[in-house]
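Severity: low
Component: inverse-folding endpoint
Summary: output formatting inconsistent between runs
Steps to reproduce: submit the following structure tokens with default settings.
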């Protein structure tokens, strides 16, 4: 054993490697992305990794490998689990041969997601076991435990992390390479009664699953990471706290300032460690549940109190004693526990109200498109081409979601990956006089949009597809995709042509243009919008984060009339006002030239401001 300073996601990855993982597949999404990337960097030679087209495909690739006896990890964020749900729900009935861990990173807040989904609910819904680590060290250890339980019970297993665990750092104990387990897959053995799903087999499988989960609940009551602490506390003998995941660390920190109270740590929210919970509840009058995001532990304890006729009042999110949305924090948990226990936090007592009032608010930093981002040019060109016409701009998930910000104001809808195509079609069928545009990125096109385009062609929709191709998966950290010509294993492969796919589907108008050529871009949009049927424009220009930028521009102040059109219309952060004049911040400017093309007096160009 030795110590390493690791991010939680890195710890999960190293735990999987130590467990002898053979195959890892996933789709990038914050806060899960670094798990697969770390395995790709530090994997043994015989471990295969891939960024799959989407989470559904990743789950199916993982299932095939697990059928053959491989140890498999599939990675995604919480909304990605929705995409993977179809194969996963059936896989629960089929089962696996090799251990299969489904890493799902939840995003309380949400910090970078559409929703605040709680994977613990999905665990209950799918009847799959779930592990919920509270620290980086536990994340490392639990993924190894999860593989063991998966193989013991022949089932996929969830490892549910949250942002503060996934992106937290700690110095942890990890195994040396000589201590790693090795797993040699037996290979796929044909057995149609095992691997082919039929209603009769599913009925029997369901019976087996219910019986298995009862046994698992018993096993989890003895699992070392589920525990009761401080039972018999003299400070608070009749009041207890129940917590799980990262909130357990908030609770333990708060109790240092408030005094010890009986504490139930729940590391496996499903199947719930019922026997352990009964031991915890016995002798208590009241329990406060602290968890994220939903009242999963709270509802389980309410049920157990009813089942065993325990006279314990359970408080938490359902009673509004803990907030029922957003992230908890040490301060919020401290307040919740102080009110519940009737104690004054020692640390807060030392800070006067006046001192607390003087603490400054954190600055607000709204997300914006980067200076020089080619998406800005694409949005602006479409906006100018369609000025004065009845239009709807359907957006998507990615950097380009930030096209909604002023002054561009070019995202009228945003639901989930690939949905803009369907929404544009739906609006057009109801409002035929509306020009409907759907924006997708190049990675999203492969992940979730091809079927939408096929649907549009088949059902004779009138819409314009805008593909914002910046040659990477930018928002989640520049991962490769089928259009980049390389894989996560480092192989150079033929690029999959978006233009070729669109023409193969049946589109007659497919045009590729540089979004930083404003005149050509506006012209292309006008021609496309004037045509009936499904049309596509591919705005192709690399992300400025992966291509070295050119020299920054400057403003000739003698020519500049201070009209501020450049700021009012494109909102590039490289354009700033100082001393009541517009100047270019050469630390941000990439020299993309978009502002110089819209300046009415041609005052922008040349070298950087001195």
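Observed output (run 2 of 3):
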């Amino acid at each position: 054993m030795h110590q390493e300073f690791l991010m939680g996601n890195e710890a999960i990855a190293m735990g999987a490697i130590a467990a002898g993982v053979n195959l890892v597949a996933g789709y990038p999404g914050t806060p899960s992305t670094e798990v697969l990337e770390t395995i790709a960097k530090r994997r043994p030679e015989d471990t295969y990794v891939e960024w799959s087209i989407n989470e559904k495909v990743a789950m199916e690739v993982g299932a095939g490998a697990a059928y053959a006896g491989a140890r498999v990890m599939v990675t995604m964020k919480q909304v990605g689990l929705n995409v993977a749900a179809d194969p996963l729900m059936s896989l629960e009935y089929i089962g696996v041969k090799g251990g299969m861990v489904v890493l799902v990173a939840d995003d309380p807040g949400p910090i970078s997601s559409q929703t605040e989904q709680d994977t613990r609910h999905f665990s209950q819904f799918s009847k799959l076991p779930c592990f919920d680590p509270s620290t980086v060290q536990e994340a490392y250890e639990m993924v190894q435990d999860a593989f063991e339980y998966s193989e013991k019970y022949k089932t996929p297993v969830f490892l549910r992390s949250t942002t503060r665990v996934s992106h937290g750092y700690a110095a942890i104990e990890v195994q040396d390479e000589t201590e790693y387990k090795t797993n040699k897959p037996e290979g796929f053995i044909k057995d149609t009664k095992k691997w082919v799903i039929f209603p009769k087999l599913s009925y029997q499988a369901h019976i087996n699953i219910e019986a298995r989960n009862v046994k698992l609940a018993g096993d989890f009551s003895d699992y070392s990471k589920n525990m009761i602490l401080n039972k018999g506390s003299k400070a608070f003998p009749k009041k207890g706290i129940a917590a799980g995941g990262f909130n357990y660390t908030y609770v333990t920190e708060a109790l240092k300032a408030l005094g010890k109270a009986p504490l139930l740590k729940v590391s496996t929210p499903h199947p719930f460690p019922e026997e352990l919970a009964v031991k915890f509840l016995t002798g208590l009058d009241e329990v406060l549940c602290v968890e994220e995001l939903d009242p999963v532990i709270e509802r389980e304890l309410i049920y157990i109190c009813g089942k065993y006729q325990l006279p314990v009042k359970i408080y938490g999110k359902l009673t509004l004693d803990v907030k029922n949305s957003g992230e908890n924090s040490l301060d919020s948990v401290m307040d919740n526990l102080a009110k519940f226990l009737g104690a004054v936090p020692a640390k807060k007592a030392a800070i006067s109200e006046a001192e607390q009032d003087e603490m400054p608010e954190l600055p607000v930093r709204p997300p914006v498109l980067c200076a020089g981002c080619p998406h800005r040019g694409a949005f602006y060109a479409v906006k100018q081409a369609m000025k004065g016409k009845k239009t709807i701009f359907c957006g998507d998930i990615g950097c380009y979601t930030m096209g909604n910000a002023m002054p561009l104001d070019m995202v009228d809808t945003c639901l989930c990956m690939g949905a803009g195509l369907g929404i544009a079609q739906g609006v057009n069928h109801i409002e035929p006089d509306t020009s409907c545009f759907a924006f997708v990125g190049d990675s999203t096109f492969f992940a979730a949009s091809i079927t939408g385009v096929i649907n549009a062609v088949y059902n004779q929709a009138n819409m314009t597809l805008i593909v914002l191709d910046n040659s990477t998966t930018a928002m989640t950290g520049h991962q490769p995709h089928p259009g980049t010509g390389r894989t996560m294993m480092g192989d150079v492969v033929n690029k999959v042509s978006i233009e070729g796919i669109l023409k193969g589907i049946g589109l007659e108008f497919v045009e590729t243009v540089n979004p930083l050529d404003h005149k050509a871009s506006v012209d292309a949009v006008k021609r496309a919008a004037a045509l009936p049927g499904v049309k596509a424009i591919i705005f192709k220009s690399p992300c400025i984060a992966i291509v070295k930028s050119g020299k920054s521009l400057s403003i000739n102040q003698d020519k500049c009339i201070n009209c501020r059109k450049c700021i009012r219309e494109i909102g590039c952060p490289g354009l700033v006002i100082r001393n009541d004049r517009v100047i270019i911040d050469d630390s941000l400017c990439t020299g993309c030239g978009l502002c110089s093309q819209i300046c009415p007096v041609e005052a922008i160009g040349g070298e950087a401001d001195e």
